């Protein structure tokens, strides 16, 4: 589940789904968004193919009983009443072909049992299967709605401007519609500056939702109470020890924006961020003392230490989850080279909100192009700028 926090915002900045995910959404809705003609198309094509095959084979070959495939095909896409209507057309075609082949005597067992009885029986069975399919689709849609409702109820997406920061987000869940992944992020404007958390919960499903809720709930409280980022991480660590099963952990990257010109970063086993300059050059932030993920702090002694990184008004900070840097290429299977690709794609993001949103859209599109349009894991991209006085609104 991609969990968001903030003060509520329109969802248009989250980006569209890949084409295959859109097709899966249509299937989950039992093809309700498709016209009747498109849904009936496969069955109508089957009627046409059988008719043409029987006609071309001549009257000495009786291929009309092959029309029995029509109800089976129709059961995949049509509602029961629609199926009966299309199958009636198939029955009329069956009568027509039987007349062409001079097999029209009801006393002829080839006609009565080999064609009509079998066709009617398969039609009735297919209508029942279509009804079951619709019920299963409705149940699947209900599960998907519950997952989406849980996602919306737990947290809200931040505004494009939080404190002095501008934000742009793209994310996609690679989990099935009934399951939820573990990427999360939160942006809060606190008395100690604007603070950002990006994390990735181990695992998926309801367990990931529960862990993410604990992490983000603790962050929401600690970010306003604690002056230093290590203390914020310590509060979350303590909350996870109380409410999360042993062995579960969450990689995390904290960013604190207090003074202009720099950002404090706290690395807890997460993907290092990328700093992009206005000239398109990019550098991965190096951490001298990275720390273990949240939930594993009791295994080591001491506390994590933040790293101060220069961050000017024309810089863009690129935060992501491992679903981005570990995305496999469609050709060759190589990982996505974020550090090489991000610079030219997001360098102008500091100029305005529109430029920042266009930048994350370009980066996300490039990621999809690298993978051939599909992501094998949850992926989150968060771009952050702290504009100066020369930046546009």
UniProtKB/TrEMBL annotation:
Keyword Hydrolase assigned: yes
InterPro entries: Bact_Sigma-Reg (IPR052016), PPM-type-like_dom_sf (IPR036457), PPM-type_phosphatase-like_dom (IPR001932)
TM regions (residue ranges): 83-100, 112-130
SMART domains: PP2C_SIG
Regions annotated as coiled coil: none
Protein name: PP2C family protein-serine/threonine phosphatase
Cleaved signal peptide residues: none
Domain named PPM-type phosphatase: residues: 165-386
Keywords from the UniProt entry: Hydrolase, Membrane, Transmembrane, Transmembrane helix
């Amino acid at each position: 589940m991609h969990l968001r926090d903030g003060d509520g915002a329109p969802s248009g900045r989250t980006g569209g789904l890949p084409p295959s995910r859109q097709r899966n959404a249509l299937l989950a809705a039992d093809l309700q968004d498709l016209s009747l003609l498109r849904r009936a198309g496969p069955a109508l094509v089957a009627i046409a193919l059988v008719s043409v095959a029987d006609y071309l084979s001549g009257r000495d070959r009786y291929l009309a009983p092959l029309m029995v495939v029509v109800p089976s095909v129709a059961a995949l896409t049509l509602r029961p009443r629609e199926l009966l209507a299309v199958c009636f057309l198939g029955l009329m075609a069956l009568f027509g072909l039987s007349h062409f082949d001079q097999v029209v005597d009801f006393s002829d067992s080839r006609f009565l049992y080999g064609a009509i009885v079998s066709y009617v029986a398969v039609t009735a069975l297919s209508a029942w299967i279509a009804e079951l399919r619709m019920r299963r689709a409705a149940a699947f849609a209900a599960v998907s709605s519950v997952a989406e409702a849980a996602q919306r109820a737990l947290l809200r997406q931040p505004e494009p401007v939080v404190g002095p920061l501008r934000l742009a987000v793209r994310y996609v869940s690679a989990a099935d519609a009934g399951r939820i992944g573990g990427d999360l992020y939160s942006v809060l404007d606190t008395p100690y500056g604007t603070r950002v958390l990006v994390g990735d919960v181990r695992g998926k499903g309801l367990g990931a939702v529960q862990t993410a809720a604990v992490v983000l709930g603790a962050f929401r409280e600690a970010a306003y109470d604690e002056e230093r980022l290590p203390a914020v991480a310590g509060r979350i660590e303590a909350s996870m020890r109380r409410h999360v099963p042993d062995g579960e952990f969450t990689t995390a990257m904290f960013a604190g924006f207090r003074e202009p010109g720099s950002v404090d970063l706290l690395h807890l086993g997460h993907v290092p961020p990328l700093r992009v300059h206005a000239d398109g050059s990019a550098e991965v932030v190096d951490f001298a003392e990275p720390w273990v993920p949240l939930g594993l702090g009791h295994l080591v002694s001491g506390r994590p230490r933040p790293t101060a990184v220069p961050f000017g008004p024309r810089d863009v900070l690129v935060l992501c989850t491992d679903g981005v840097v570990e995305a496999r290429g469609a050709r060759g299977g190589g990982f996505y080279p974020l550090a090489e690709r991000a610079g030219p794609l997001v360098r102008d993001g500091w100029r305005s909100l529109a430029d920042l949103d266009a930048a994350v859209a370009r980066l996300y599109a490039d990621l999809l192009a690298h993978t051939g349009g599909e992501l094998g894991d949850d992926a989150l991209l968060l771009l952050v700028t702290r504009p100066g006085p020369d930046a546009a609104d």
